[in-house]
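Format notes (please read before filing issues)

Several people have asked whether sequences and structure tokens are stored in separate files. They are not. Every record keeps both together, in the order shown below: the sequence lines, then the token lines. Line labels are part of the format and must not be stripped during preprocessing.
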Amino acid sequence: MKRPSAFRTILGSLACAGALAVSGGSIALAQTPAASNDVAAVSVPKPGYPRLTKLAPNVYGFEEMQSIDRGAFSTGVMFVVTSDGVLVTDGMANPAATRQVVDEIHKVTPKPIKWVVIGSDHGDHTGGNTAYPADVTYYVSPISKDTLEKEEASPRFKAGSWKLPASAVVVPDRKTLTLGGEQAEVMFLGPGHTGGDLEVYLPKERILYMSEVYLNYVFPAMRSATPTTWIATAKKALAMKDVRTYVPAHGEILTGPQTRQGFEKYVKAMEDVVANVKGMHDKGLSLDEALKQVNWGPYASWPMAQQQGQIAIKRVYMELNGELK
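Then the structure lines:
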């Protein structure tokens, strides 16, 4: 789906209250604007962040707090340490933030970063990719490749910003990688929050990195999504019964079986949001009437519900009216 480049950046939110109750001192992070034409994205100091979560003996989740368009939220990546090098999923909004990822990896292992999967093509996940080694191999979906190349050709594209290398490996459906004895499946389950989301599944560890198909405890941000398509993609991930740990791109990274419950709750939230809006549409309410009358019930207290709720109504109305392609 073609969209303005500002749509590359998700409107963030505070992670659930538990995400902020992590031990550790306040860490002041660099106040660096995002690359490209994104809404300004800066790192913000929050107690306990940045934080590292060990998901398996050789698998880690790393999060930092960002602020975008008045919202504070955690953005995360996953990295896998193998005997041949390190695989990273996604990046951060700017070089300073992504350098934190690189530095954290170097604290864990001396192995070089060799592979980066572009789960989301949005700027808060690609804006800092210049901080990754120049010789890494990128994996990207055809949809994200097209999106990135169109943005690079735009007259508004900033000189010196990261560009997708011509050597990037395109993954239209699924690609199994064997990296230093570690098997990783890079897969495209369908569009989520973005059009070209790639996921990474580690069958031995039963861990699935969801990128922006999963935004943990954030009101569904539909401004660049086709709502029912996103739900269908998420359900494909839930149908993978061997998965033990679901890793989100935004919101607190947790471990183990509880993450399936959290992901199920998020999918139900998306379904309830769409059903709520569809009910108003079926009653013949105009868009303006729906925007004024909506009641989100239990989701009204979810972070960013007021702003993202208004956007969700517009997007669901557009889909029901056949205005989304």
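For reference, the curators noted about this record: The radius of gyration is 19 Å. The helical segments are 95-108, 123-126, 142-152, 227-238, 258-282, 287-293, 305-320.
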